[in-house]
Amino acid sequence: MVSGNTKGRRPAAQELRPDHEVGLSWGGATEVLQRMVLGFSPMLFEVLAKVMQPQQNASVLQSQLGPVLATNLQANLVFPPMPIQDVIDLARWFVHSAIMFSRFSTGPNIVGGPIEIACNYETRKFQVG
What we know:
Strand content: under 5%
Shape: globular
Oligomer: single chain
Number of helices: 4
C-alpha cells in the first residue's frame, strides 16, 4: 500500500498487488532501494549505453539485461510467511536508508520526516499509524 501526506490529509490507500502475491514495491527516491534490492543503480543502463561501442539504446539494454541482472543480483529479502514484525522492520530499514542516502548525497535533501508504517492484516481492516 502507498500513502502520502498531502497538506495534513492522507489520501486513500491504493492496492499495489493482489492479496495472494508477496513482494516489494517502492516509489519516490528509488536510487538506494534499487541498489540494495536489485543490486544495481537505475542509471546502469544509461552508463552502459554511452560507453559501449557502438553506442546502444539504454531502453533496449534495460529490456535485455534487466531481467538477467535481477535474477542473478536481486536480494531475496521477502518470503511468505514472513512475520509481520520482520516486515515492519524491513520497511523501516528501507525508509531510514533512503533518508540517510538523501542526506549524504549531493543535492537537495529530498527524503525525511517521521517514519510511519502501515500494516494490512488478513484478519483486520487496513490500518495506518
